[in-house]
């Protein structure tokens, strides 16, 4: 029976992901086990000297900004920035959105205190172990996103940070031998590190702290790192194919562009650009939705497009028009889902805390900095007011010229290719997800409903927490239980397998959005729970009364096996009960009593808080729920 179960699982994965994926994964595993990867990725730096520092400083390749012509207004009132730089100089670094740790090296996981071996070949480093902990807590510091705090502080406070910046880069190079240790494990992490080093090198290209010896050391490391990425990019292209391949392609393109003296620069620039254009067109649908079903990963792609599109323009080699079309569509999708009051979006989909190029004082969940920067590159006016979120645009797109068109979100939006439906009315945002999976799903969250009132997420997605955690937590955050949707008994909409794998993908999902004189409504349905029984369909209708804080949610679940309950779940914020009332009835009109269960909420990667779940249960097929403001 066990062998049959594994055979069935293997067949399901191959059918859903494709035989190319399965065979490549098997081939890569075999190369790791037999030592082939050690041969393909040898230990040891090239030790080359590429260019004199005088030549380096006179290269004419245009970057995102000219450090001598930055028109940013200095702001010495950025007390949070000053505090963060003080922490960095004291050896404490920010991890993801709000955690700070003092980590003495580049290989220690601050949560488990496990120290990864820095001289072991990267192919022998275990990246999924509960004992060792989530490897992202090692990678986070080595991304070097903290460089942006140092550089911004340098500009705003007129205090040179080049010595600190170059000392940290040189220390990383000294303690991370080529192709050894955890920081050579992931090509996306390598590419991101090189992009961030490139930003710093360009800002400090005229600094007296940059000696010939130091320049040689940094350029040699960049070459070795991107040589690794180029040799391993098929893994992300076939076995991952999401924001990883986009980051790596951009890394190759930017490296080839900005370091023309590298022997592989032309090849990397050409290949990187080709892959970047191809994957943008492939991964972003024509309606602007993204194949990873995640708002934060959508923002990651926005950040990558800012660099790719802008650098190609500055160097008079524009990307193809379809890339611009997908970028505009992606931007308008995010804008439709964005709360005007604070720039936040639903905490929907996987959120690993990624914010690649933080160049403002805004909070992590505020998407305005990145969206405004891409809008500036595309010459679009999103209708944002003047604020601190515009600093990123000045760094990355300061001389793009005036906006040519103004775009405002519609009151009613349907993104049918991705399966998203949005109502914007009376200071509220009503967001529903119902779609088929054409690529690997990460969360069982169809028919999830998010409700926002004046920037408050009153009914919310519970978030992600960690990618490497205990089985109970992993199932909760990725499963249906952490979403405002329906479960049958304790079953998820799809069947959870190991780690990120789901089988029995959702089928026949569809939806529509419309309105009348008095109401807006969304109707959506999907076929799921196929590991429970065939033919189970969840239909949901959400009605929003115009210009009122009044919602009606009508759930119908067809073909539920006899004796099983349907469970309607709600994840309210902490103040929901003080301001709103939620009541439910079954198909006969009988009132259902809400029960409360303990759950969790994660507002940022690595952060988990206790949070209540409200449940309505019925042995029938329908639950009708009304949400209104309290009058008592």
What does the model show?
The strands form 7 sheets. This protein has a 7-stranded antiparallel sheet with strand order 15-16-17-18-24-20-21. Strands 7-8-9-10-11 form a 5-stranded antiparallel sheet, with no helix packed on it. It has a 4-stranded antiparallel sheet with strand order 12-19-23-22, with no helix packed on it. It has a domain at 412-629: Distorted Sandwich (Beta-galactosidase, Chain A, domain 5). 37% of the residues lie in helices and 20% in strands. It has 18 helices and 24 strands. The N and C termini lie far apart (59 Å). A hairpin with a 2-residue loop joins strand 10 and strand 11. The protein is an alpha+beta fold and 632 residues long. The longest helix has 29 residues, at 212-240.
Quick gist of this model?
With 632 residues, the chain is α+β, with helices and mostly antiparallel strands. 37% of the residues lie in helices and 20% in strands.
Feature tags:
single chain, 632 residues, alpha+beta, 5-stranded antiparallel sheet, 18 helices, Hepar_II_III_N, periplasm, lyase activity, Heparinase II/III-like protein, Chondroitin_lyas
Question: Strand order of the main beta sheet, please?
Answer: 15-16-17-18-24-20-21
CATH fold description of one domain: Beta-galactosidase, Chain A, domain 5
Please report the number of helical segments: 18
How many angstroms separate the termini?
A: 59 Å
* Mass-distribution shape: globular
Beta percentage is 15-25%
Number of strands: 24
Label the structural class.
alpha+beta
Low-pLDDT stretches are none
Q: Rg from C-alpha positions?
A: 25 Å
CATH architecture of one domain: Distorted Sandwich
Helix share bin: 25-40%
What is the C-level CATH assignment of one domain?
Answer: Mainly Beta
Main sheet characteristics: 7 strands, antiparallel
Average pLDDT for all residues: 95
């Amino acid at each position: 029976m066990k062998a049959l179960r594994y055979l069935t699982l293997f067949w399901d994965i191959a059918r859903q992901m494709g035989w190319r994926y399965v065979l490549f994964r098997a081939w890569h595993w075999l190369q790791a086990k037999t030592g082939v990867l050690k041969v393909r990725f040898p230990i040891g730096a090239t030790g080359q000297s590429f260019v004199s520092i005088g030549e380096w400083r006179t290269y004419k390749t245009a970057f995102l900004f000219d450090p001598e012509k930055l028109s940013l207004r200095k702001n010495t009132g950025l007390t949070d920035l000053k505090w963060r730089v003080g922490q960095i100089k004291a050896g404490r670094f920010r991890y993801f959105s709000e955690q700070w740790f003092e980590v003495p090296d580049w290989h220690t996981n601050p949560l488990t205190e496990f120290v990864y071996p820095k001289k072991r070949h990267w192919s022998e480093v275990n990246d999924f172990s509960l004992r060792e902990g989530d490897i992202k807590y090692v990678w986070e510091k080595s991304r070097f996103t903290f460089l942006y705090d140092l550089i911004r502080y340098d500009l705003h406070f007129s205090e040179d940070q080049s010595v600190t910046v170059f000392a940290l880069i040189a220390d990383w190079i000294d303690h991370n031998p080529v192709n050894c240790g955890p920081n050579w494990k992931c090509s996306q992490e390598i590419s991101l590190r090189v992009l961030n080093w490139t930003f710093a090198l360009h800002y400090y290209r005229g600094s007296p702290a940059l000696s010939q010896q130091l320049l040689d050391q940094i350029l040699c490391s960049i070459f070795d790192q991107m040589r690794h990425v180029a040799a391993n990019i098929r893994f992300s292209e076939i076995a991952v194919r999401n924001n990883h391949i986009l980051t790596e392609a951009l890394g190759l393109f930017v490296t080839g562009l900005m370091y023309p003296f590298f022997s592989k620069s032309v090849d990397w620039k050409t290949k990187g650009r080709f892959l970047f254009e191809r994957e943008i067109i492939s991964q972003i649908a024509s309606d602007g939705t993204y194949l990873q079903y995640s708002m934060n990963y959508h923002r990651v792609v926005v950040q990558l497009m800012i660099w790719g599109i802008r650098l190609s323009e500055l160097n008079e080699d524009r990307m193809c028009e379809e890339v611009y079309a997908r970028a505009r569509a992606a931007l308008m999708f995010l804008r439709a889902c964005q709360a005007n009051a604070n720039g936040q979006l639903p905490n929907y989909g996987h959120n690993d805390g990624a914010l690649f190029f933080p160049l403002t004082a805004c909070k992590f969940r505020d998407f305005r900095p990145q969206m405004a920067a891409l809008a500036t590159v595309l010459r679009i006016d999103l209708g944002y007011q003047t604020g601190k979120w515009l600093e990123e645009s000045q760094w990355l797109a300061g001389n793009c010229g005036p906006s040519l068109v103004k775009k405002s979100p519609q009151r009613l939006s349907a993104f049918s290719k991705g399966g998203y439906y949005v109502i914007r009315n009376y200071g509220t945002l009503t967001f529903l997800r119902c779609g088929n999976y054409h690529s690997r799903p990460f969360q069982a969250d169809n028919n999830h409903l998010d409700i926002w009132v004046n920037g408050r997420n009153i009914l919310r997605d519970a978030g992600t927490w960690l990618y490497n955690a205990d089985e109970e937590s992993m199932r909760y955050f990725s499963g249906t239980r952490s979403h405002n949707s329906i479960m049958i008994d304790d079953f998820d909409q799809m069947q959870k397998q190991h780690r990120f794998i789901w089988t029995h993908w959702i089928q026949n999902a569809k939806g529509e959005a419309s309105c009348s004189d008095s109401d807006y409504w969304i109707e959506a349905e999907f076929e799921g729970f196929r590991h429970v029984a065939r033919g189970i369909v969840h239909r949901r209708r959400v009605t929003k009364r115009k210009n009122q804080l009044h919602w009606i949610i009508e759930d119908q679940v067809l073909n539920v096996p006899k004796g099983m309950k349907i469970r309607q779940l709600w994840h309210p914020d902490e103040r929901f009960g003080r301001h709103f009332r939620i009541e439910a009835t079954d198909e006969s009109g009988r009132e259902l009593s809400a029960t409360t269960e303990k759950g969790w909420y994660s507002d940022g990667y690595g952060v988990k808080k206790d949070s209540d779940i409200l449940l309505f249960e019925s042995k029938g097929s329908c639950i009708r729920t009304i949400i209104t403001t309290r009058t008592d």
